[in-house]
């Protein structure tokens, strides 16, 4: 797919990065891939980064401290702008943004590319297609604010709700359309969402998503976190929970399911150690306790009140 390019954003999450790269290697054939690392100083991460070109055959762009100080590459949104410039230089029309604590969960097929391109062709007000599964914690929100467009195999957001209805840090961007609207990425996901709303664009969600955040992930190394945060992660059993790559039977269940039309991660994905939980957390903080349920949910509710 010469018009597509995958960009992986990395910082100090070695085992997560390796899992992400392995999933891309397994699921995404014949697509150019670039890893943009934000000057990781973790030994494990740098060990993985040293294999990006030799083991995976991917391109690596690694920021130096000077790059970060000059704000040419440092930070997620600076890295996203760098990715956009690389894509334009290489003549790419579509970019897939994925972060190191995420992974591809199934094989990509030609039909996936055809569906995405048709969405952009049919809807002038869509500049991004979200390629991640939905979250069970927000299922009622999806039912209220996502419209199912059966002929395009997608759901489209309701822009009357200012809740990341027009933008996400990850997913598929149509490069020329993004240039016409937002133009450049600014700092902050909600800030980019507000900017996108000014252009009346909407966010589409794939009916058959192919990537997802890892549930209950630990906060990345070198992040300044306090004791309370560390205790919450320990009690919530946060850690490294890779998602199993879907087999053909599981993909067919996703593609042709009848009982539940929303592609909720917990309904279709499998993770060792989480099979007994109907709700997962994909965010940091107290929400990890809440998603675990039981006594931990009661502790989370109490913490939110104080």
Could you please describe the fold and organization of this structure?
The chain is of the alpha/beta class and 306 residues long. It folds into two domains: 4-206, Spore Coat Polysaccharide Biosynthesis Protein SpsA, Chain A, CATH 3.90.550; 216-305, no CATH class. The protein has 13 helices and eleven strands. It has helices spanning 14-27, 43-49, 65-69, 76-89, 110-122, 139-145, 175-180, 189-198, 227-235, 248-256, 265-268, 287-292, 294-305; strands at residues 4-10, 32-37, 59-62, 94-99, 102-104, 126-130, 146-149, 154-157, 171-174, 202-206, 211-213. It has a nine-stranded mixed sheet with strand order 3-2-1-4-9-6-10-8-7, with helices on both faces. A two-stranded antiparallel ribbon has the order 5-11. Strand 7 and strand 8 (154-157) form a beta hairpin. Helix 1 runs parallel beside helix 2 (43-49). The longest helix is centred in the first third of the chain and has 14 residues, at 14-27. It is globular. The N and C termini lie far apart (52 Å). The model has no long low-confidence stretch (mean pLDDT 91).
